[in-house]
């Protein structure tokens, strides 16, 4: 295991590098009502590029916990409170492996009750959608399902670089991998509708707000091509995609492509006209409530079904 996660909210533990983890547990809220009632299922968060779990995905953790789920997340290397050069993704597959290692370790050491231990879901936002799909590929039978929020699952045809450009980028990454050189528009304004949330992101020292580093951009390009060419049609787990119709960060038409291409028999796509990229945190309170009603209803239905993922941890 390349890294290890803490077992408590926001704890950090030493490994090859220090990883910050976060958890939200519903047991204390239920203690007075039903001391023996376990969480409905385990939910594991995969955050987006340049953000983290403790603040930007706190609302997701809290809402799912109130709905009866035990929720876990970790900050990737170079993100949030974890070690590493901020905003730097030197190896996307290593990032996926870190998530897989940590999530499996939680299942192994937590929640002796088999009824809900066997039900485990991924929730991936933006780049975290690609992380979730790749974590699923690592253990195809381990996961009960996934919720993909405005996932990064393919490069739009008009944005696809020429193979010669890809080769040049690959060569440059070996020389200046951490160089903040890739030009981008202001993603915060495009992603978050509410000014209050924009201000929170800009004021959060654990969110990376500079230009993407060269190797990071190359890794994101490489993983997008991998997902498009090798994974979209092989996705077999039950999934829900939620995507804003006015998203300018990840293209909702590409979520439609994932929905159409996936081998899953249980798949749902919900598009929200007029909503932007940050569906679970950057929209108006009413819009966020609508999105979470759909997410929780989907999770509740699959958490109450018989059986569940019984893959090897």
Helix content: 25-40%
Characterize the overall form.
globular
User: How much of the residues is beta strand, in percent?
Assistant: 5-15%
Do you know the CATH topology?
A: Rossmann fold
Number of helices: 11
Number of strands: 8
In the predicted model, the low-confidence regions spanning at least 5 consecutive residues are: 1-15, 307-313
Q: How many individual domains? A: 1
Spatial strand arrangement across the major sheet: 1-2-4-3-5-6-7-8
Q: What is the second-level CATH architecture?
A: 3-Layer(aba) Sandwich
The description of the largest β-sheet is:
8 strands, mixed
Query: Roughly how many Å apart are the termini?
Result: 13 Å
Assigned CATH superfamily: Alpha/Beta hydrolase fold, catalytic domain
How does the helix and strand content classify structurally? alpha/beta
Q: Identify the CATH class.
A: Alpha Beta
Q: Mind telling me the C-alpha Rg?
A: 19 Å
* Average pLDDT taken over every residue: 85
Series of secondary-structure elements, N-terminal to C-terminal: EEHEHEHHEHEHHHHEHEH
Describe this structure in words.
The protein has 313 residues and is an alpha/beta fold. The protein has a single domain (12-303), classed as Alpha/Beta hydrolase fold, catalytic domain (Rossmann fold, 3-Layer(aba) Sandwich), CATH 3.40.50.1820. The chain has 11 helices and 8 strands. It has helices at 27-30, 58-66, 92-109, 114-117, 127-138, 163-173, 187-191, 195-203, 214-231, 252-261, 285-303; strands at 12-13, 19-24, 42-46, 70-74, 120-125, 145-149, 239-244, 267-272. The chain has an 8-stranded mixed beta sheet, sandwiched between helices. The protein is globular, with a radius of gyration of 19 Å. The protein starts with 11 loop residues before the first strand and ends in a 10-residue tail after the last helix. The relative contact order is 0.15. The model is unreliable at 1-15 and 307-313 (pLDDT under 50). InterPro entries: AB_hydrolase_1, AB_hydrolase_fold, Hydrolase_4, MAG_DAG_Lipase.
């Amino acid at each position: 295991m390349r890294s290890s996660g803490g077992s408590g909210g926001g704890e950090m533990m030493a490994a090859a590098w220090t990883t910050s983890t976060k958890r939200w547990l519903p047991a204390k809220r239920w203690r007075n009502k039903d001391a023996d009632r376990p969480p409905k299922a385990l939910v594991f968060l995969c955050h987006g590029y340049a953000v983290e779990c403790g603040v930007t995905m706190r609302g997701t953790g809290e809402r799912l916990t109130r709905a009866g789920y035990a929720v876990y997340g970790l900050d990737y290397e170079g993100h949030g409170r974890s070690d590493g050069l901020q905003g730097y993704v030197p190896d996307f597959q290593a990032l996926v492996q870190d998530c897989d290692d940590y999530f499996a370790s939680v299942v192994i050491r937590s929640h002796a009750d088999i009824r809900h231990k066997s039900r485990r879901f991924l929730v991936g936002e933006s780049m975290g959608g690609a992380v979730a799909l790749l974590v699923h590929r690592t253990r195809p039978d381990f996961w009960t399902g996934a919720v993909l929020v405005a996932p990064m699952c393919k490069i739009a045809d008009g944005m696809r670089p020429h193979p010669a450009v890809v080769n040049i980028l690959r060569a440059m990454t070996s020389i200046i991998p951490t160089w903040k050189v890739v030009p981008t528009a202001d993603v915060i304004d495009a992603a978050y509708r509410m000014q209050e949330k924009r201000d929170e992101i800009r004021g959060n020292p654990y969110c990376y707000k500079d230009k993407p580093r060269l190797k990071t951009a190359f890794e994101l390009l490489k993983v997008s091509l991998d997902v498009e060419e090798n994974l979209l049609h092989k996705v077999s787990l039950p999934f829900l995609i939620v995507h804003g119709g006015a998203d300018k960060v990840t293209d909702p038409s590409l979520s439609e492509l994932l929905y159409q291409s996936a081998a899953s028999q249980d798949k749902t796509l919900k598009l929200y006209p007029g909503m932007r990229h940050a569906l679970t945190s950057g929209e108006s309170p009413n819009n966020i409530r609508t999105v979470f009603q759909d997410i929780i209803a989907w999770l509740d239905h699959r958490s109450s079904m018989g059986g569940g993922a019984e893959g090897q941890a």
